[in-house]
Amino acid sequence: STTINNALSGKQPLDETLTHLSGKDVAGLLAYLGLGEGSALPVGVPVPWPSATPPTGWLKCNGAAFSAEEYPELAKAYPTNKLPDLRGEFIRGWDDGRGVDSGRTILNSQGDAIRNITGTIGARHEISALYFFGNGSGAFFGNDEGMYDSVVIKAESTGKSSVSMTDRHIYANLDVSRVVPTATENRPRNIAFNYIVRAA
């Protein structure tokens, strides 16, 4: 009841209100009271929607331009008259001076990145031969046996590999997919929704 009273606050007198609502369906009643679908959110707020088609009064956040004359309130939120393109994107809270993600402005896009991956792999040489560790750990691994320009690298019984000093073709490999899932982008686990924005 408190919500209804608050919604009715500032509306026209009771008799005019009843006249206005005469013949309205439930959707019309809720719209008049300011309790319709999405009305709790201000114009311009993007929300995840579980359908490819947005409801009436909402637009997809697909980078499209819109008319300021048709959507004046939306133009206040997006003065460029262009919606952000949130297809395939995550929303991140603006840093606002905190120092976690500094140097950015609101609606600024950011490319993908990962923390640096570093490591070492041991090697040694003698006068007659060059040795390296063929058994790396984690994402690192060496060539236990390989061929380069008809020069064969053989694995010794010690677990190391050797090659003549005159050849000097030795490789240490890094393959992160040996220890973590990989793809063409960096991403957390997620569920796909359609970002839409209240336009009016």
TrEMBL record:
What Gene3D superfamilies does the database record attribute to this sequence?
Answer: Phage tail collar domain
Q: Where is the Phage tail collar domain?
A: 44-91
For this entry, the protein name equals Phage tail protein
